[in-house]
């Protein structure tokens, strides 16, 4: 994924108005106000170029989707994939995600969180930048509804092991795959840009699904 500028569409302002959520610091989002309904809200963290969220929202019109992405150019790419008239159940948040995400997402409100190909930060001295760490899993636990799910994919074996170990330490999550991960594409799987590129290079993604249990603490 390069860091090139993405050409803005002629109707950029209209798309921004329709799809982008304005976040005010530390103000919890009001989903009913944002979507105009009470439907469940699923979140994707690190939406990249938006293949996943733009398809998912069309497959499930009775679910609302929020894609959170740090890079504004990628936010523009995602907005270009969305339909101004039809895609009323998707919004985007241009935001850095870490444990502080709970300052904007309501507690116990999200049934499913998707994290696909988070940056693996392969060098040991960069592991501290990895999205998945215990304070962030605490935040996942706080955002998820009881029995809510987290679906994670990575083609990086070292990061996969790291993720499995971090979730193994938890009493508030159970792994849904016996060996910690699966190579099988699951029902509803959508191949993202990054996954397609990495598969072509010979890297197979590992899927790790977790379900929240009732215990709230590690
Ligand atoms: C390797 S790319 C994968 C993108 C997409 N999920 C896919 O599979 O094609 C990682 C994405 O996560 C975004 N990202 C990285 N760290 C983030 C963070 N802390 N908060 C929000 N987005 C982040 C990056 O800008 C990038 O778009």
Classify the beta-strand content into a percent band.
15-25%
Q: Give the cofactors and ligands.
A: S-adenosylmethionine
CATH class: Alpha Beta
Helix content: 25-40%
Strand order of the largest sheet: 3-2-1-4-5-7-6
Terminal-residue CA separation:
35 Å
What general form does the structure show? globular
Order of helices and strands: HHEHEHEEHEHEHE
**What structural category arises from helix and sheet content?**
alpha/beta
Total helical elements = 7
CA-based gyration radius = 17 Å
Walkthrough of the structure:
With 218 residues, the protein is an alpha/beta fold. The protein has one domain (39-212): Rossmann fold, CATH 3.40.50.150. The protein contains seven helices and seven strands, in the order ααβαβαββαβαβαβ. The chain has helices at residues 12-19, 31-35, 51-59, 72-81, 134-143, 157-168, 193-200, and strands at 41-45, 64-69, 90-94, 110-116, 144-154, 173-175, 206-212. It has a seven-stranded mixed sheet with strand order 3-2-1-4-5-7-6, with helices on both faces. α3 (51-59) links the parallel β1 and β2 (64-69). The longest helix has 12 residues, at 157-168. Bound molecules: S-adenosylmethionine.
Could you give a short description of this structure?
This protein has 7 helices and 7 strands. It has 218 residues and is an alpha/beta fold. The protein has a 7-stranded mixed sheet, sandwiched between helices.
């Amino acid at each position: 994924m390069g860091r090139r500028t993405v050409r803005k569409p002629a109707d950029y302002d209209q798309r921004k108005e329709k799809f982008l959520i304005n976040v005010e610091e530390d103000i919890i989002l009001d989903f009913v106000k944002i979507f105009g309904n009470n439907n469940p809200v699923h979140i994707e963290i690190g939406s990249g170029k938006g293949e996943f969220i733009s398809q998912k929202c069309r497959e499930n019109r009775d679910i609302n989707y929020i894609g959170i992405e740090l890079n504004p150019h990628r936010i523009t790419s995602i907005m270009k994939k969305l339909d101004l008239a039809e895609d009323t159940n998707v919004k985007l948040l241009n935001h850095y995600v870490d444990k502080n995400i709970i300052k904007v997402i309501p507690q116990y409100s999200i049934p499913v969180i998707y994290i696909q190909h988070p940056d693996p930060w392969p060098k040991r001295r960069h592991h501290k930048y990895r999205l998945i760490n215990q304070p962030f899993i605490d935040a996942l636990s706080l955002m998820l509804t009881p029995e809510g799910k987290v679906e994670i994919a990575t083609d990086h074996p070292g990061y996969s092991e790291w993720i499995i170990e971090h979730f193994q330490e938890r009493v508030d999550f159970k792994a849904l795959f016996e060996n910690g991960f699966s190579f099988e594409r699951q029902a509803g799987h959508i191949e993202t840009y990054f996954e397609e590129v990495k598969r072509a290079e010979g890297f197979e993604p590992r899927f790790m699904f977790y379900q929240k249990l009732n215990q709230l603490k590690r």
